[in-house]
Amino acid sequence: MKQQQRKALALAAVLALSAFSAAAQGTGAAARGAQAANSAADTGYKAYARRDYAAAVEAAQRAVQLAPQRRDYWLLLAQALAANGQLSQADQALERAAQARGDDAALTRARADLGRMHAQAAGDAMYKALAAGDVKTAVAQGTEAVRWAPENAGYRLVLVHALLRDMRYADADRVATEALALLPESAAPLALRAYARQGLNRPAEAAADVDRALQQRGVSAAAHRQLRLLAADLALAQGNGQRAMDLLAAFPANDGDAAARRELARQRLAGMAGDFALRAPGIDCSNVDAAQTCTLQAAALPPMPGFANATAAYRALEQKDVQRALEQARIATNASPGNRDWQLMHMNAALAANENAEAERAATAALALRADAATLAQRSTIRRSLGDVAGANADAEAALQSGELPVTTQAALLADLGRTREARERLASAPAEQATPQTRLDQAYLSTRIGDSEGARQAFAAADAAGGLPPTSLLDAGYAAMKSKHDQEAIGYFHRAIDAVNGMQLKLDPQLVYDTRRSVADLERRWGVLASLTMRNAGGVVPGIGVVGGPTGSRTTQAGAEVYYRPWGWRNGEFVEFFARGFMTLDSQANGDTGSDSFSGALGARWKPFSSQNLVLSLARVFGPNVNGDWLAQVGYSYDYGNDLRVDVPSWWTHRFYGEVGRYLEEGNNYGLAYLYLGRQYLVGNSGRTTVYPHLFAGLEYNSADLVEKTSSGVGPGISLRHWFREDVYTAPRSYWDITAQYRFRTSGDDRLKGFYLNAFLNY
């Protein structure tokens, strides 16, 4: 018995060990399967990321085969299939994903993405079918597009158009009503529903819809013209010739589209015309996302020559493809010269392409068809740009006489006519409560044009407060504030402009960005330090300092420094500065005074009275141990061309002129100097902030107190090394040091402007 028990126990142990081994093997196989599935999914994700969608599909299929319970793998497969154009298979993969457990939010997003792709594919197929004249396919695909994207008004409106062409008027009425719920302020669904209801023999409702369409606000002139033509066609289809004539009364006699319909209306009134076959209007939904509606085009009677080209031109203008717009506009107006709208479109395309002479001809053609104040004002501007002042003035006067123009346009014309005071009065007469942000912008630019910087600043600020200041206007607003001496306000606008450039919201040339930063640096500066160290023949006259000691013909080394303060800021370049300066001779070969014995100091103020001219007036009290205390009055003038850094080119011409005269009021002595530098600066090094400036120098100095030679002049070559520093995101470099070496040849007078000259200068 015990032996049997031992055998039974042994058999049980063997069976247990076998079961454990099998379980272990099963667990290991499952782990290896999960690892293989994860590896396949990882391969699929990477293939998807590099847009190799076929490889992504293959890897994802392998992953779901190995781990069908993983929802994320099914979602990967669905996304890869959709990206590979296999939408129906993607739908099946999503269904399998829904059966697995996982992230419900990810499943919802995947369904939404796939729905958009279905809608886009169906919408594209609908457009292609319409272009090919396959109306039934267009209806089927449009129905699918609407099913997948019920919120897309463009798909619904094009579907209505297709249903009208397929004469499925009940369905067209239903879908147009749905589109109207999406676009309650759009004329397009109302006009399309009117056509559907006319097809259902409900003329009263059709007329009511088209009347509502005509009353919608915000419809462009071109779109309103087409709505009138559509309404006239509907009236003709209803046999109402008088209503058609009333609708067409607003069109000029030589409008080709209206003329053909007028003739049909006359025939209808005379009882001579047969039935009018109402054709579905054309539709363009290419700009529905931006415009929140589609544009309709009345069916041609017969097809108007140039219609396709005009449509292409309008579309190209919307897309800012100005060359194509101009080419298509030329063809359209050549084919139908009596179409005034197309002549105006031709004018706008020519203006956009900077073909002003052609724009003037198109404006003249439009005015010949029907004169109006707005077109006269536009032609006035064009003629002025072409130099036809007499023609421009005549157009401006005629446009002003109409009294139909907006206040800003009237003011602009008055400014063009040189009647600046009237222009300002006209601008001031605009009711503030009726001004829109765009009106404020127009006022700002016009105020800038007539030189009213304060008016421009206020208008820009009002537009900004109303949220109507686009990034493209920030610089203009900043310069208006700067010119009207509101420094902090200008700095704020310039900072925002630089932020907009860095944020990719505004595109400016690098040099213009640098110039803006230079303006910020000028506006923010309140104090500064100037220091120089000079070695030359004798003391002579020093710019900004006046007469300094030093026997003629002897080498001297002299140093000077100045600290200045601008208490009221930049003030559009009309600043006031208070300064303190000192100057001394460090070394003199003629054994003249050096060190503290040679010190000459001054305390004073200077004023730059003009924004546009570098003219500076100065008055200072001069003092020193060996200097007779005196009042020094100075007038300085400078002209610089290319003196600042450039960031757009590696080299540039640089010319500098500085002239100065001074008088010691108590002693009665006078001095003067004039320096000219001509040369070209070159960027050197990798910083973009260091330049070398080889140049030619010419100088003249005068000192009435000199007992031997009162004047001296010289010329010679020179070279300067300058490095700029102290900048940040918003400001250009505020400081620089400069080392200049010259060799001067005396041309007249004594030797002050002769020999080797060396100067080290710091502007901090």
Automatic annotation (TrEMBL):
Protein name from the UniProt record: Tetratricopeptide repeat protein
Source organism per UniProt: Ramlibacter cellulosilyticus
Key words, A-Z: Signal, TPR repeat
Domain Bacteriophage N4 adsorption protein A C-terminal: 592-759
Transmembrane segments: none
The organism's place on the tree of life at top rank: Bacteria
Signal sequence segment: 1-24
TPR repeats: 37-70
Family annotation (InterPro entries): NfrA_C, TPR-like_helical_dom_sf, TPR_rpt
Biological classification of the source: Bacteria, Pseudomonadati, Pseudomonadota, Betaproteobacteria, Burkholderiales
A Pfam cross-reference name: NfrA_C
Coiled coil: none
